Amino acid sequence: MAKTIAEINDKIRQGKAVVCTAEEIIPLVRQKGLKQTAATVDVVTTGTFAPMCSSGAYFNLGHTKPRIKMGGGRVTLNGIPAYAGFAAVDLYMGATALAEDDPRNKVYPGRFLYGGGHVIEDLVAGRDVRLTVNAYGTDCYPRRSLDAWVRLADMNEAVLFNMRNAYQNYNVAVNLGEKVLYTYMGVLKPRLGNANYCTAGQLSPLLNDPLYRTVGVGTRIFLGGGQGYVVAHGTQHNPGVPRTAGGVPRVPAGTLAVMGDLKQMQARWLRGASFTGYGVTLAVGLGLPIPILDEEILAAAAVSDEELVAPVVDYSQAYPNCQGETLGEVTVAQLKSGEITVAGKKVATAGLSSYTKAREIALILKEWIVSGSFLLTEPVAPLPGPASGYAVKPFQERPWTPSPETV
Amino acid sequence: MSSRRVVLNFPPHLIDQPITYHLIRDYDLKVNILRARITPNEWGQMVVDINGNGENLERGLAYLAETGVVVQPLDREVRWLEDRCIQCSACVAHCPTQALTVDRATMAVAFHRDRCIACELCLNVCAYQAMEMSF
After folding, report:
1. Closest Cα of chain A to B98: distance in Å?
2. Three-state SS for A321?
3. Which residues in chain B show pLDDT less than 70?
4. Is A173 part of a structural domain of the chain?
5. How many CA atoms lie within 13 A of A114 on its CB side?
6. In this structure, are residues A16 and A302 in contact, taking their beta carbons and an 8 Å threshold?
7. B125 touches chain A (CB under 8 A)
8. Whole domain around residue B33: which residue ranges?
9. A353, B125: Cβ pair inside 8 Å?
10. Is A191 part of any domain?
11. How far is CA A174 from CA A105, A112, A319, A345, B5, in A?
């Protein structure tokens, strides 16, 4: 029995929609079968909470008296440089931005205790943040400097705009080398000392809609504790990868670009993170609702950790040198058991994505839908799918050489 | 050479005495101050690493006791700031004593203080500054 999004929204408005999380749906489908479950369940909610580096926020601070042109000048928020290459008082703060005087990895491994992700967390928490501006001054924007406190509530717009979130599947990172590695996948002990993974598995948004049948441009989502939207496919979107029989990518594949009003969000779902030896980033909470329009969509949303696989990648050689080799596949169920076997050796696993927070997000989204405060959206356009030919490319390096005239 | 990491508690009447100076000058000890909180008319506290020849070290500690400084062994303690923890489990594979564990049914992270040996390995592994060393 096929349903439409409009029909599901009617049920949501009447308080009659049946909603399950992507975890709750698994035993239900096993007990009642696809047909009966698809007839009764209207929406499956997903969730993920993990570091997502290609995140950031833009702000409009309002005009000072006299006016100042931040565009083309130098701007910092709590000492962290913001990108100001826009009109007078628009800024963008990226999650991985660092203070100019941060020691970075000069004393290796660096601690990276504060950066762009933490500025976003501080603003969302309602804290005062110090703004400094050095501007060049123009006839229409005469002011040249500003040093003041700012806070989220006083800004005109404050919008989280993340160009790549919710990676569909991710590498399991190990270290075959002889020294400790400090990576964005955490600290990796030498000689297969540990295996770090980053997925919410059976709760993960894009692993539950693997062929992007319901998610698309304009899909309303849980973002950072507020309601946001899918803007487009994210950067590095790569749908044409090998997939399981259920259509789930066996390696990193699809991504989402998302946005949402930062003023609605909560600091507990947007957390600055400091990766020793690597840098700063932002942990983002994101949840995608999946309308159960037919049995096929339900079958995909009922996927369990036992059926999901991730590639094991060596971060001492293969990853940094972009060699694309893997050391095999493991299931998410194995990863979550605390131990996997790589090259015949038992290796302890550690997660970077919080499964308990992913579950909490899926439950919050469920509650929003059940209570009628969150309606589903029809996608305005689909995301590039597996057959689209859309693919990620490596950098084509054409080294610069001086032309004869300039020498 | 011997070394001792201790907590020195200064009664208010000793705050204006140059005790550390005497420890260094009179007993030839290397005093590394790890943490200090000294304010007038209050008990002060200093966490120090004292290095020196064994006999001098014992004499120095005896001097401290004689002046009225209360010397305590340092109980280093790692604290888990539960509200900062996002329950990612990145620390668990690094903890040598299973003081940090995951309940595999719920995937919730827990800290068992009694098993912690304060090795500090988790401090650099936690991206959210949820593990803290307290002196």
Report:
1. 12
2. coil
3. 135
4. yes
5. 13
6. no
7. yes
8. 2-73
9. no
10. yes
11. 21, 22, 10, 12, 37
